[in-house]
Amino acid sequence: MASAIVPAAGAATRFGGDKLIAAIGDCRLLDCTLRSLLDAGVEQVVVVLPPDAKWTTLIESLTDRRVRTVVNPDPSRGMFSSIQCGVERAEGDPVLVLPADMPFVRSETITNVSATSARANQIVVPTHGGKRGHPVAFPASVRAAIAGAPPESTLKVALASTGGPQLEIPVDDPGVLRDVDVPSDL
Length: 186
Fold this sequence. Notes:
The chain is of the alpha/beta class and about 190 residues long. About 25% of the residues lie in helices and about 20% in strands. The strands form three sheets. Strands 5-4-1-6-9 form a five-stranded mixed beta sheet, sandwiched between helices. A three-stranded mixed beta sheet has the order 8-7-10. It has a two-stranded antiparallel sheet with strand order 2-3. It is globular, with a radius of gyration of 15 Å.
């Protein structure tokens, strides 16, 4: 059973706030990200929210039975602290990490990354044009190392510290590199 962590506790200061409810066609940004994961067959999605998220009722996918939410009590510590909050609730194997502001990743790519990680029992990172992207997948055996890393760390550093092999897989999906930081990124 694959699970995913979706860090969604950032302040979106470069965007001007409320980034996750911005419209992308007929879909809100966070809904698009969650739909990609759910359409890929991810059985459990843990969305990490800030303590003051008043916009959650606008995100339809949060009512899906496969989606759980957890609050990062201090998101000012950075995205990795949200990943750590999520890893404590993620029950699947492998575990994927897909930042909330990456709504353009194709569900087929997520399925490929997840299946490759499960089959190889390794950390898997998709690449596009030679650049590393998301979602990153890792075996459940790595969860303790992530949970125990310093909160000011990064996912890349925490995964490297495990000493486990990392498999980079080239994908034909520019969405693995495309996040939304400012309104023009939509």
